[in-house]
């Protein structure tokens, strides 16, 4: 198809329209943000959903790493520690991330605001570059398609997940790279496109990689005689580009294999929550349902691309073979929305956790691709065909609106969206009619055409941004940085207080990932990249990390687990009542507490720690580490003295008695008051365990006791709720309110009373056997003196990237319950060192260097051959 071949040069006009392709998406999205009160320094931040809980904290950690001696391959911040290189490959890869260097961690909301706009603008330029060399349309047409691509429904609706935008940016360059390789045998653009794609985000990179191969096959099938010889060149370039990125990809893939989740089973043929009219409705203006569970794909790219895409299939100017090949590509994507197996395939056979149909931007790109081809073939004589397409779409949209009007599954399709869609279609039809009748130069018409198109995209962008705000809520800046300076000051105070490694946790943190923001070693974390073995282990000893260990919470723990994991400091915005925790600092409304009973990173002990019933039981583990046998807890049965807004019944489930609380008045909290007889010198915990966490995602538990008040999520806190530290034997009252739940099933609540004197004695004994470690980047070192051969128990997260050395000689590492590391230490005085290097890093580095060298040689051969042909 000669008319569809790539254009040879860009010229000055490309620069002008490329600049517009960069600026206009930024101006439109920036204006929409401004309209709802988001701008640099505004009270309302751009942080919504994952942008608040994850990306703001993770970018802050990268910033800290760049400006300090922290390692790029290992982080001690989240959980007990994790492979930071793998973490970067998923969350922080890409050429734009280092720009965070020019911001302070306190200003991460502004950084993410600027980064979002910058990426959106670059996406526009990327597609303009592709369009100008692929389609035979006016330069202003390239600009319109580019702006449409930059502001398509997927990019706006999923803008909270900012790292996905990199894949969208590289897709047009990769497609153009394929074109250049197939048409001119120039593989450089494809090589660098793939390289930067895989280095930016392997998750989206997988999707783009599969799609681009399909795109190559489609082009090949349209002209097999011409393109068959290019298959080897494409395959070689793709493999070398993938190999060049192995320095990051290989460690990430190994880490994913070790710590990734199990593949999702294909349970049924049809994808859940999808309906027959999804793709039609999501092509209307301003349609937002949700990015949570039960949502449907975001595929909007504007009405004109849809028109020209339909024209691509209806015109006789385009060969039937091209229609079949490109139509098959589009059909595969459509079927992938509806067939669960195909849907899971695009997600690497792992069902996404909200933000569904993450590959739907590929559908939008395909629509724009076919629209560009259709537009390239449109002439004045095709006016009647275009009119028929407009009228057909108007009728079709009307029918769909009527059919879905009484369907609860499509209640997010408002009459406003439908009316706007019809109005813009009618306006475009009028403009086409004006174009058909006019014979003079149509500069005014082009201006009107572009203006209306930009208004359409602006309206859609505004509706989607409003949808995000309603769905997730853009958070106030104060939630991110109101206490930043005071908390940072307390973190620095803790650093000055300790010369050796320790862990710190903010009891009242706004996010589970705050340790990344402030740069301290904590427990809590919410990340798709995590050390599942250590998180699972910590779940067994009291820190809640259920299911696939996507999250681990600090809140669900006791003084014993605080001690075992070396939690030496707590920060809180209110007084806490924890035995052994002494207040040593205060900044603003935040307090710093030091735990006198915290153990160092290492403790010398015996082989009993390898027994599973010991290592997974905090009480027994402390006994072994301290050498003091006995029980630290006593179980007490609390007495219910009052119940409000609930009927209490009992039943037997799982072989145990279950308390069932049915709210009398829906929407109001269920309240229970317990009386508890406690011992002297005791830390008291109320043991509340639901029979099931299903339907409790919004449930909160508010507890008011004599010395402790709390209000936490039931799902996050888990089982143990601290009632405070008491010195005297007495009767206390615990008032508990369960909010946002109408039916609650609980195992019979108990009270755990920890003998704080006996616990403190055991902690002191364990400290005497302790080994203090110094941590520097990816290394942890210590000096050990022992009279006999002993086991060195550590709280270093188990990972095969660790190597241990005693006096410079490597020794075997043994894991404890697959969660933490230990080694055998012979008698005498020794220097211990643990060194981390991600598995596959060295091999990945060698592969990267080799693949770059091979591609450079291949490129040189192609250049030399082309020069020889030129001078023959």
Automatic annotation (TrEMBL):
Protein keywords: Membrane, Transmembrane, Transmembrane helix
Transmembrane domains' residue ranges: 17-39, 72-91, 111-130, 151-171, 191-219, 231-254, 293-313, 325-349, 355-374, 386-403, 415-434, 443-465, 843-863
UniProt superkingdom: Bacteria
Keyword Zinc-finger in annotation: no
Record InterPro entries: Uncharacterised_YfhO (IPR018580)
One family name in Pfam for this protein: YfhO
The keyword Transmembrane helix is assigned to this record: yes
Full protein name: Copper ABC transporter permease
């Amino acid at each position: 198809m000669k008319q569809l071949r790539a254009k040879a040069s860009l010229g000055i006009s490309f620069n002008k329209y490329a600049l517009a392709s960069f600026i206009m998406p930024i101006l439109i999205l920036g204006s929409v943000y401004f309209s709802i009160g988001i701008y640099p320094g505004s009270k309302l931040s751009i942080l919504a959903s994952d942008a608040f809980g994850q990306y703001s904290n993770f970018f802050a950690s990268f910033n800290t790493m760049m400006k300090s001696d922290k390692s790029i391959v290992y982080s001690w911040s989240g959980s007990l520690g994790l492979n930071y290189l793998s973490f970067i490959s998923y969350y922080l890869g890409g050429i734009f991330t280092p720009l965070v260097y020019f911001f302070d961690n306190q200003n991460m909301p502004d950084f993410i605001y600027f980064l979002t706009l910058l990426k959106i603008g670059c996406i526009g330029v990327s597609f303009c570059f592709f369009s100008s060399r692929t389609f035979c349309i006016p330069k202003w047409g390239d600009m319109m398609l580019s702006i449409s691509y930059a502001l398509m429904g997927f990019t706006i609706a999923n803008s909270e997940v900012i790292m996905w935008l990199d894949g969208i940016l590289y897709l047009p360059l990769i497609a153009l790279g394929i074109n250049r390789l197939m048409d001119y045998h120039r593989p450089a653009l494809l090589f660098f496109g793939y390289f930067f794609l895989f280095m930016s985000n392997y998750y989206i990179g997988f999707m783009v990689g599969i799609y681009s191969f399909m795109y190559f096959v489609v082009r090949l099938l349209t002209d097999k005689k011409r393109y068959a010889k290019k298959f080897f060149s494409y395959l070689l370039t793709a493999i070398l580009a993938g190999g060049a990125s192995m320095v990051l990809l290989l460690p990430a893939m190994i880490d994913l294999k070790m710590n990734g989740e199990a593949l999702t089973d294909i349970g049924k043929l049809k994808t859940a929550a999808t309906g027959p009219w999804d793709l039609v409705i999501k092509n209307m203006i301003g349609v937002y349902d949700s990015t949570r569970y039960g949502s449907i794909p975001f595929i909007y790219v504007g009405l004109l691309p849809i028109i020209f895409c339909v024209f691509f299939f209806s015109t006789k100017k385009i060969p039937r073979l091209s229609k079949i090949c490109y139509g098959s590509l589009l059909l595969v994507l459509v079927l992938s929305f509806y067939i669960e197996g195909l849907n899971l395939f695009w997600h690497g056979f792992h069902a996404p956790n909200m933000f569904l149909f993450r590959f739907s931007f590929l559908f939008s790109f395909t629509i724009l691709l076919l629209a560009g081809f259709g537009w390239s073939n449109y002439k004045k004589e095709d006016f009647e065909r275009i009119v028929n397409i407009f009228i057909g779409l108007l009728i079709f949209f009307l029918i769909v609106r009527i059919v879905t009007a009484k369907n609860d599954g499509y209640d997010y399709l408002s009459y406003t969206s439908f009316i706007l869609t019809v109005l813009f279609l009618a306006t475009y039809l009028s403009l086409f009619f004006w174009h058909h009748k006019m014979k003079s130069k149509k500069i005014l018409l082009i201006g009107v055409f572009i203006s209306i198109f930009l208004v359409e995209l602006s309206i859609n962008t505004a509706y989607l941004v409003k949808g995000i705000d309603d769905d997730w809520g853009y958070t106030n800046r104060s939630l991110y940085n109101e206490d930043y300076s005071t908390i940072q000051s307390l973190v620095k105070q803790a650093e000055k207080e300790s010369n050796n490694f320790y862990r710190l946790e903010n009891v009242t943190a706004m996010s589970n990932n705050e340790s990344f923001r402030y740069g301290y070693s904590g427990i809590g974390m919410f990340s798709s990249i995590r050390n599942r073995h250590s998180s699972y282990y910590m779940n067994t000893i009291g820190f809640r990390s259920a299911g696939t260990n996507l999250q681990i919470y600090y809140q669900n723990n006791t003084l014993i687990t605080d001690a075992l994991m070396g939690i030496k400091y707590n920060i809180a915005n209110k007084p806490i009542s924890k035995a052994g925790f002494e207040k040593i600092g205060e900044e603003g409304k935040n307090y710093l507490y030091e735990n006198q009973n915290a153990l160092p990173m290492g403790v010398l002990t015996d082989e009993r720690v390898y027994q599973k019933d010991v290592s997974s039981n905090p009480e027994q583990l402390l006994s072994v580490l301290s050498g003091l046998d006995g029980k630290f807890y006593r179980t007490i049965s609390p007495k219910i003295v009052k119940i409000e807004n609930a009927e209490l019944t009992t039943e037997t489930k799982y072989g145990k008695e279950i308390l069932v609380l049915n709210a009398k008045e829906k929407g109001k909290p269920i309240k229970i008051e317990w009386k508890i007889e406690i011992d002297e010198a005791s830390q008291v915990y109320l043991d509340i365990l639901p029979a099931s966490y299903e339907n409790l995602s919004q449930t909160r538990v508010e507890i008011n006791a004599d010395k402790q008040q709390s209000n936490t999520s039931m799902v996050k806190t888990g089982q143990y709720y601290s009632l405070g530290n008491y010195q005297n034997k007495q009767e206390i009252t615990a008032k508990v309110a369960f909010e946002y739940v109408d039916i609650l099933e609980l195992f019979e609540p108990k009270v755990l009373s920890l003998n704080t004197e006996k616990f403190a004695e055991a902690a002191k004994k364990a400290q005497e056997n302790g080994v203090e470690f110094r941590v520097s980047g990816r290394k942890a070192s210590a000096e050990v003196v022992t009279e006999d051969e002993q086991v060195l128990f550590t709280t270093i997260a188990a990972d095969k990237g660790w190597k241990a050395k005693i006096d410079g000689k490597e020794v075997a590492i043994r894991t404890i319950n697959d969660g933490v590391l230990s080694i055998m230490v012979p008698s005498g005085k020794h220097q211990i060192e643990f060194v981390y290097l991600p598995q596959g890093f060295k091999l990945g580095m060698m592969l990267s260097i080799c693949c770059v060298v091979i591609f450079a040689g291949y490129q040189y051969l192609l250049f030399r051959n082309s020069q020889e042909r030129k001078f023959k």
